[in-house]
C-alpha cells in the first residue's frame, strides 16, 4: 500500500460520525473493484464492526451520483422492509454518514470513502454448492425486483453509461482487437472469432427493449450469488449487497448474470474447461426462486426472455473479460497474468453449453410462466 492510500485510509477511519473509540481496521473480502476493510469501533466496552470501502473513481467516475442512487434505493427498501415486519438494519445495507450529513467521506487526496454497518452471522456464496442456497439467492434478487417495482427507475443516475448495452460492449471489444495494445490478439484468435460470430446475441435484448417489450426497471446489475448474504441461523437469503451498479436496466439482465455465475459447475476463473457447464438443476431452482420473489411483477415478455438474458449476460461478461485482457487488464483485478483470459474462456464455454441446452432452458421457463 502506497503512502497516499495509507494516509487516506487513516483519515477515513475517523471520517464518519461513528460513536465510540476507533480500535482497528484490516483488509476484508475479495472484491474486484473497490478496496474493502473491516473497521472496528469500541462502544460501551463492545467491539462494533463496520465495513469501510475506498470507492474506485477510475471505474465509478461520479461517486456522489453513485451514492445518491444507493441511498435512494436503500432508503426506499428500508421502508418496504419495515412495513413487512422485517429488520431494515439487516435486510439492506445501512450506511453511516459523516458529521456533515454526507454518505461519503473525501480524504485529503480527493478520494471517496463510505461506511456501513457490518451484518453478522451471515455467509455469501462464492460458488454455489447447494441447490437450496441458489434458490435462496434467486428469491432474494426476485424480492429486490418486487420491492423496487414501483421505484421510478428513470430517476436514477446511469453511473456507468451503457453498462449492460451489449451492442456497445461489442464495439469496445472490436476497438480493443483493432488496437491490440498488448500484442495479444494473435494468441486469442479463437476466442475473438467466438465473439464475432455471435453479434446477433449482442443486439438481442437491446432490440427487445427498443420494441417496448422489456420495461425499464431498477436493476442491481451484478447479481452474482455472492452478492446475497445468507442467514446462518435459517439458511434463508437475507440481504442483497454490493449496490454500486444499481441503475435503470432490464430485469432479464439481473436474472442472466445470476445464471452465468451461479449455475456454472465451475469457478468463474476455472482453467479446466471440461469442468464448466450450465447446471439445469441449478437453473431451474433459480427460475423458480426468482419468479417467486418477483411475485407477479414481471411481464410475460420478461419471463419469456429469461433464457435469453442468461445467454446474453454470459456472452457479454466473457466479451468484457476478453476486452480487458486485450487492453492490458485495466478494469478487473487479476491475480495471475492470464486471469482475465481464463475468465473469458469459462464464459464462452458456458455460452456454448447453453446453446446445446437451449430447448430445455426455454421449456423450464415456460413451466413457470403462468404459475
Automatic annotation (TrEMBL):
It holds the Pfam family APH. Residues 25-265 form the Aminoglycoside phosphotransferase domain. SUPFAM superfamilies: Protein kinase-like (PK-like). It comes from the Bacteria. This is Aminoglycoside phosphotransferase family protein.
Amino acid at each position: 500500500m502506497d503512502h497516499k492510500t495509507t494516509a487516506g485510509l487513516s483519515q477515513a477511519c475517523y471520517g464518519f460520525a461513528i460513536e465510540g473509540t476507533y480500535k482497528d481496521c484490516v483488509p476484508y473480502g475479495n472484491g474486484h473493484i473497490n478496496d474493502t476493510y473491516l473497521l472496528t469501533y469500541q462502544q460501551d466496552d463492545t467491539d462494533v464492526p463496520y465495513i469501510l470501502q475506498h470507492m474506485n473513481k477510475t471505474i465509478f467516475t461520479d461517486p456522489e451520483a453513485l451514492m445518491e442512487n444507493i441511498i435512494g434505493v436503500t432508503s426506499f427498501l428500508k421502508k418496504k422492509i419495515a412495513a413487512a415486519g422485517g429488520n431494515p438494519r439487516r435486510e439492506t445495507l445501512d450506511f453511516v454518514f459523516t458529521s456533515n450529513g454526507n454518505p461519503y467521506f473525501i480524504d485529503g487526496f480527493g478520494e471517496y470513502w463510505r461506511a456501513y454497518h457490518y451484518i453478522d452471522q451471515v455467509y455469501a456464496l462464492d460458488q454455489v454448492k447447494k441447490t437450496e442456497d441458489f434458490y435462496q439467492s434467486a428469491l432474494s434478487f426476485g424480492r429486490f425486483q418486487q420491492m423496487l417495482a414501483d421505484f421510478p427507475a428513470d430517476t436514477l443516475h446511469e453511473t456507468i453509461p451503457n453498462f449492460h448495452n451489449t451492442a456497445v460492449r461489442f464495439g469496445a471489444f472490436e476497438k480493443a482487437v483493432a488496437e491490440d495494445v498488448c500484442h495479444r490478439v494473435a494468441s486469442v484468435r479463437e476466442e475473438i472469432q467466438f465473439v464475432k460470430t455471435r453479434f446477433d446475441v449482442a443486439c438481442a435484448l437491446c432490440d427487445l427493449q427498443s420494441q417496448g417489450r422489456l420495461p425499464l426497471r431498477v436493476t442491481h446489475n451484478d447479481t452474482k450469488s455472492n452478492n446475497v448474504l445468507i442467514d446462518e441461523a435459517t439458511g434463508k437469503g437475507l440481504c442483497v449487497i454490493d449496490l454500486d451498479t444499481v441503475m435503470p436496466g432490464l430485469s432479464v439482465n439481473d436474472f442472466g448474470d445470476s445464471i452465468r455465475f451461479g449455475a456454472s459447475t465451475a469457478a468463474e476463473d476455472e482453467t479446466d474447461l471440461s469442468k464448466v457447464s450450465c447446471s439445469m438443476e441449478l437453473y431451474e431452482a433459480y427460475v423458480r426462486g426468482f419468479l417467486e420473489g418477483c411475485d407477479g411483477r414481471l411481464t410475460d415478455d420478461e419471463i419469456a426472455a429469461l433464457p435469453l438474458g442468461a445467454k446474453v449476460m454470459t456472452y457479454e461478461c466473457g466479451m468484457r473479460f476478453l476486452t480487458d485482457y486485450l487492453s492490458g487488464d485495466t478494469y478487473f483485478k487479476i491475480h495471475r497474468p492470464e486471469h482475465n483470459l481464463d475468465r473469458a474462456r469459462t464464459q464462452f464455454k458456458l455460452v456454448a453449453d447453453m446453446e446445446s441446452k437451449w430447448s430445455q432452458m426455454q421449456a423450464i421457463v415456460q413451466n413457470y410462466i403462468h404459475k
